[in-house]
């Protein structure tokens, strides 16, 4: 799946069953359902799951919690707009499919 195909899929009712949990979380976030995205992300026990979880808390505006999850992911909170981080994460996660 390409990045553009992923973005276009957000117009649908449900994410593709072929998506990883991290991509499914990011899909629901883009769809505007932060709670659903967060529920998925908090149950992904991987570095990538922690990166998505961190992004979601940054989006929420709870930076101390975001920083905790960035640390778990071995990353620092990025100095970029949220939309750019979302795109970066989607592209990173698509590369692992």
What do these coordinates show?
The relative contact order is 0.17. The chain contains six helices and no strands. The longest helix is centred in the middle third of the chain and has 14 residues, at 47-60. The N and C termini lie close together (8 Å). The protein has 97 residues and is mainly alpha-helical. The protein has one domain (20-94). Helix content is 65%, strand content 0%.
Q: Name the helicity range.
A: 55-70%
N- to C-terminal distance: 8 Å
Computed over alpha carbons, the radius of gyration is 12 Å
**Largest sheet properties:** none
Coarse shape? globular
Tally the structural domains. Answer: 1
Nearest-integer average pLDDT: 97
In total, the number of strands is: 0
Question: How do the SSEs run, as a string of H and E?
Answer: HHHHHH
Class based on secondary structure composition and strand pairing: mainly alpha
Ordered list of secondary-structure elements with their pairings:
Elements: H1 3-9, H2 21-31, H3 34-41, H4 47-60, H5 63-72, H6 82-94
Helix pairs in contact: 2-3, 2-4, 3-4, 4-5, 4-6
Summarize the structure.
This protein has 97 residues and is mostly helical.
């Amino acid at each position: 799946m390409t990045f553009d195909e992923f973005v276009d899929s957000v117009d649908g009712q449900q994410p593709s069953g072929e998506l990883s949990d991290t991509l499914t979380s990011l899909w629901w976030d883009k769809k505007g359902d932060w709670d659903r995205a967060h529920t998925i992300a908090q149950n992904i026990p991987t570095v990538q799951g922690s990166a998505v979880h961190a992004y979601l808390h940054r989006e929420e505006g709870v930076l101390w919690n975001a920083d905790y999850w960035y640390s778990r992911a071995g990353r620092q909170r990025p100095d970029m707009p949220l939309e750019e981080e979302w795109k970066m994460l989607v592209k990173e996660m698509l590369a692992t499919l």
